[in-house]
Structure formats: structure tokens, C-alpha cells
Amino acid sequence: MIGKVLQILSMDPTGQKYFTIIDYVIFALLLVASMAIGLYYAFTGGRQSTTQEFMYADRSMKCLPLSLSLMATFQSAVAIIGTPAEVYANGTQYWFIGCCYILGLLIPAHIFIPMFYRLHLTSVYQYLELRFCKAVRICGTVTFIFQMVVYMGVGIYTPALALNAVTGFHLWGAVLATGLVCTLYTALGGLKAVVWTDVFQTVVMFTGQLAVIIVGVHQAGGLSDAWVKVRDGGRISGIDLNPDPTVRHTFWTLGVGGVFLMLSLYGVNQAQVQRYLSSRTEKEAVMSCYMVFPCLQVALMLSCLMGLVMFACYGNNSPLEQQYITSKDQMVLYFVMDMLQNFPGLPGLFVACLFSASLSTISSAFNSLATVTMVDLIKPHYSMTEARATLLSKMLALSYGIICVAMAYVVHLMNSSVLQAALSIFGMVGGPLLGLFCLGIFFPCANSIGAVAGLAAGLVMAFWVGIGGFLSRMPSSVQVLPFNSTNTSENITVPAVIDAARPAGLNGLYSLSYMWYSALNSSTVVLIGLIISFMTGPTKGDDVASGTVYPVMRTAQSLLHKLVKPSACCTSPEHTVRWSYGFTVKCIVALGHFNVVKLLLADRWS
């Protein structure tokens, strides 16, 4: 498939399109600036001489750069390439994923962040040892390492594909270049370099997308003409309230299933928690989580608008149908080189935007992987000096860079869209991790045996459904179905579902929307974990470490008390009892009136 990607550049009889000098300059400036930031923090301040500075920036970060870094970490090249292609093919239904950002950020801000910050953790998986035991901590750490290494394969491969498409640069040479630049500034500059390069790269991302949108609207004939084209083409989707969980994108899969995905990313993922813990205060950590919300909404808006602009320019004459490209994930690249070729510098700016997104994601992964390996797997078993520990942490970041580059080849073999592949990986592996933390935080009765058994069951369920669904689609041929703004059950790049009947049995489970993976897998962990805990003897309240369980009942009672709070003058115990008695009597009287009315109505209609 990749060999055919060079068809993207065959846009005129003269042959392949290449970068102009301006494009190369813009792209080179991105790499130079990223490296410069890494070198700056490598030779200033504490010179990354301690693990505290290398891993947590001396806990001195402010909320604004942290919020941009939190957004950039998982809004990678996956979103920049995948989301516009999704909107072009299936309309704006995917835009409703923005609804899940509310709960997906409020819950971490009020539950996960305060708990982790007050426990003074250096790795989020230390919580698992405090709450359960060391074995559970190691299981969580190993699962996270697997998750991030696989995901980084997607992160490295995506911009390499872009560079190969627009410049003819060798695909695997681009993979190596991406991994090398990112690994160097991560290993040299530590978390400070990662966060501040994220800030710089976020600006480049937004600038590149905005420039492409503005020029694309101009090419489509103006804002009003572009709107008429996308409206008449049926790409403005309404709310699809179809409760069928096998439909890829509905309001429920995006708005509800997406909450679990967000919690696995912004609640318990080491890459994000590490940023929260690097804040100067708990208040700033919570505020940085709040500030992620508008950043994510802007990123989602730009990606969706790019998809609409692409449709305004091409209409139903899809380059995929014309066989100019082999996958809808190449749509954005084709659009940039086809429609914007008369604007020197824009192709370079967009590829810089794409590379920025990827570098921010990969660098965060390298830093977090080095941290958990050092803190959770090495330090507890080997004593060493601070200088030696810091050097080993940098070597670990370098090693993970090499491993993640190798994983890009696995992504190359996957028969799925980039967006769906990335989110499926996080749902398959991030879901069980989310369930493990929820089991410990919300259920004081859960014990260590139940935690390990629940995590194992969640991972089995994850790979059973994920791999089973992948294999069940392999024999089918790829087809492009006519557009239906409310029926978006399959991507163009995956086997199309011809039969409208709802799948039954195992096929129904395998057809589950990838947006429900996190919810299914985390629920499996909690359910199995609780069952095993009760079978083996639940944990007693006195045996639970202080600060490791969220007081659900106490919080609910406090909230209820605020909702039905008595007047300020009734603050004495006698007045409180009298108020409670009066409130109860009123409820009984109201219930009696309701029953009388119900009897009268029944008598009237009998």
C-alpha cells in the first residue's frame, strides 16, 4: 500500500511534486527549533543533573504551558490526518466527540489529580502499590509500557508517510529522522524540553491547519459557497441517537464511550499524570486540566473544518474513487499538494504542522516510558547514586526511541485507518488500566487478588474483541459505500458492511464500535475484580492506606446536603432537627397528595 502512496504526487503530466526551497526552509526551522529547545534546557538551570529535574522539571511548571502540552500529547498527527478524512467521508458526526471532553476532564480534575498530587507520587503506578501490592504495580507498569510502545508506532509512522508523500523522501529514512530528532531533545532536555517544545509545536500545528483552511476556503469560492457545498452534500450531520453500539459514530458512542477513552488518557495515563505532578501546586495542576478543554475544542474544530473544506473543494469526486490515492488517510496530504501547490511554503508549513503533532506525542511517550521504567522497575531493586540514576533515565529514553521506531513497521502492516488504529490501541490497553485504577479508587473492598484477576480479564477481553474484530473484517474486500450522513458504520478504509441487519452472537461483539472499547474493558476489570475480591475475602477498611480511596458516599452526602441546605438561621442542632422533621413531613404530605390525585384520576377513567 505504501508503495502506491507516491501516486499522491502525480497531479500533473510532468510527474512528481517536490518541496520548494521555502518549504524546505520552513520544515528545517521546525526541526532546528525543537532541537534548540532541548539543548537550551540541557545546558541551563540544573542541566538535567537530577532525576527530579529530568522527570518532573523540579515541579516548577505553570498551568498554561502544561495545558498546551497536555493537549498536544495525544492530539497528534493521528488527529490531523484522521479527523479531516473522517469528516470528508462521513460528515460532522465525529465532531460530537467534543461532548465527552466535559466529563472526561472534570472527573480527573476533581478526583484523580487531587488524589495523586496529595500522595506525592513520582509514578502513577506507585498508587497501585499503596492501594494493593507491588505485584499489581508491576502489572500496571508493564501494561502501560506495552500500550505506549505500540501507540508510538502510529505516532512515528504517520509523519513519515507525510514526508514520503510530499517530498519523495524514503519512508523508513523519514521514520529514522523522526525518531532521532525526538529522542535527542527528549534525552537531553528532560520534561522541561518536552513541555516547551510541545508549546512551540502546538502553535505550529494551529498555524498550519488554519493556513490550509483559509486557502482551501478561497479555492472553494469563498465562505458562503463552501458552506452551500458541504450543506448540499450532506456533510452537516445531525445528532444520531441510534443506541446500537455496533455503529461506529453516534452521539452515544462518542459522547458516552468517549468519556472512558478520555479518562484513560487524561486521568490515569503516566504521560499526562507526570505533567500534573510537575505543577508548582495542586491548584495549578487542576487549572491546567481545566484549560485543556478549550484547547481540545479548538484542535477538534480545526480538524473538522479541514474535512469540510476538503469536501467543498472536491465534492463527491473523491480522489480515492479516482484512484489517485489508496486510503482515505492520504486525503489530507493529497489536498495540500493538489489545491495548495500554487502557494509556496504552505506544503512545508503543513508538513511541519504534522511533524510538530507527532514530535509532541512521541517525546511525551519517551519521557514517561523512561520514568516508569526507572521508578517502578529499576529503583526499587537497585540502589544507585542520583547522577547514575539520571544517566540511566536518559539512556532509557534513548532505548525506547529505538524500540518505538521498530514498532512503526508493525503499524505499516495494519489494515485500518490511522485514526481508528490509534484509538483502538488506547481503548484495548488503556481501558483495562482505567478499570484497575477505578477499582482501587472507588471500591475500598477490592483486594490485590481481585485487582490482578480483573486486569488479566480486562486484557483478555480487550484483545479478544479487538483482534477478533480485526480478523473478522480481513476476508472482506474494501468497498466505498454511498454516503449516508446518519449511517457511518464503517470507514472507507475498512471492509464495508453491506448487510444492514444488526450482527448477532460473537459477530455482534466483534462489530462493537471502537469507541466502546475503553468502557467495555474497564467495566470488565471492575466487575471481575469485585467478584474475585468477595470470593477471596474483601479488604477491610482499616487495611486500606490513607488517601488511596475516594470518599464516594461522603461526597454524595455533602452534595445532597448542599442541595437541600436549611436556612442560615437554623444552624443550631435543635433547629437542624426541627428543619429535618419539617422537611420529612412535607415530603410525606406531598406523597399523600400525589396518591389522592392518582386515585381520583383512576376513578375518573375507570
Automatic annotation (TrEMBL):
Subunit arrangement?
A: Interacts with PDZD11.
Q: What protein does this entry describe?
A: Sodium-dependent multivitamin transporter
Asked whether the UniProt record includes Transport among its keywords, one would answer: yes
Q: Does the keyword Ion transport apply?
A: yes
Coarsely, its chief localization is membrane
Give the record's keywords alphabetically.
Biotin, Cell membrane, Glycoprotein, Ion transport, Membrane, Sodium, Sodium transport, Symport, Transmembrane, Transmembrane helix, Transport
Compartments annotated for it: namely:
Apical cell membrane
Homology family: Belongs to the sodium:solute symporter (SSF) (TC 2.A.21) family.
Catalytic activity field: (R)-lipoate(out) + 2 Na(+)(out) = (R)-lipoate(in) + 2 Na(+)(in); (R)-pantothenate(out) + 2 Na(+)(out) = (R)-pantothenate(in) + 2 Na(+)(in); biotin(out) + 2 Na(+)(out) = biotin(in) + 2 Na(+)(in); iodide(out) + 2 Na(+)(out) = iodide(in) + 2 Na(+)(in)
Q: Which organism is it from?
A: Sinocyclocheilus grahami (Dianchi golden-line fish)
Q: Which PROSITE patterns match?
A: NA_SOLUT_SYMP_1 (PS00456), NA_SOLUT_SYMP_3 (PS50283)
Q: Which residues are listed as membrane-spanning?
A: 21-43, 63-82, 94-117, 138-157, 169-191, 203-221, 250-268, 289-312, 349-370, 391-412, 418-442, 449-471, 514-534
